[in-house]
Amino acid sequence: MKERVGRGAQTRLRIIRAVADLFHQRGARATSPDDIIEASHTGKGQFYHYFRNKEGLVHEVLQTYLDAIKTGTAPIDYEIASWRDLEKWFLAPLELQKRHDMTRGCPFGTLANEVSENDELIRHDVSLIFEVVSTSWPHFFSRSKPGAGSANAPTHSAWPISASPRSRVRC
């Protein structure tokens, strides 16, 4: 029985990974269940066994992004503890774009752009992602002010344009 449960979890994860890539590439609205079934190499029965509707699927993808950010396994490191980390953070989206031939946007931003006022669960997920991503900024900037004696601080002003945490969040 354990093997069956393990295979089921692997199938579900394979579907989520395929969906995340398709959503990042096309957005949720432009991705059909048939696209997902083909990309994940699963059957319709398997797909509908794990996911009843598109909102649930978008929720699972966003939760996967959130878990990756929290555990430090996301493609971009959101923990900013040094000026070097800040530089890497600024360059990471460019590297992500290069990997996709500059054809994609932010993975969770792509989904956030499709959220309507009726998608409360999805709006909550996106809000959580932005909240988690923005937590290291205030602490870093409060202790690393340029000219405050930090040996690694840049000589030019590196302060964000806005004080709003969401304005500083990048994918």
Distance between the termini: 40 Å
Radius of gyration: 19 Å
Stretches where pLDDT falls below 50 for ≥5 residues? 155-168
Oligomer: single chain
How many β-strand stretches?
0
Q: What's the helix-strand series?
A: HHHHHHHH
The coarse silhouette is: elongated
Mean pLDDT: 81
* Count of alpha/pi helices: 8
The domain count comes to: 2
**Secondary-structure content class:** mainly alpha
- Percent of residues in helical segments? 55-70%
β content, as a range?
under 5%
Largest sheet: none
Characterization of this structure:
The chain is an all-alpha fold and 171 residues long. The protein folds into 2 domains: 1-52, Homeodomain-like (Arc Repressor Mutant, subunit A); 59-171, no CATH class. It has helices spanning 2-26, 33-40, 44-50, 54-71, 83-99, 107-112, 120-133, 136-143. It starts with a helix and ends in a 28-residue tail after the last helix.
Question: Which characteristics define this entry?
Answer:
single chain; 171 residues; Arc Repressor Mutant, subunit A; 2 domains; elongated
Would you spell out the secondary-structure blueprint of this structure?
Blueprint: H1 2-26, H2 33-40, H3 44-50, H4 54-71, H5 83-99, H6 107-112, H7 120-133, H8 136-143
Helix pairs in contact: 1-2, 1-4, 4-7
Can you give me a brief rundown of this structure?
The chain is an all-alpha fold and 171 residues long. The chain contains eight helices and no strands.
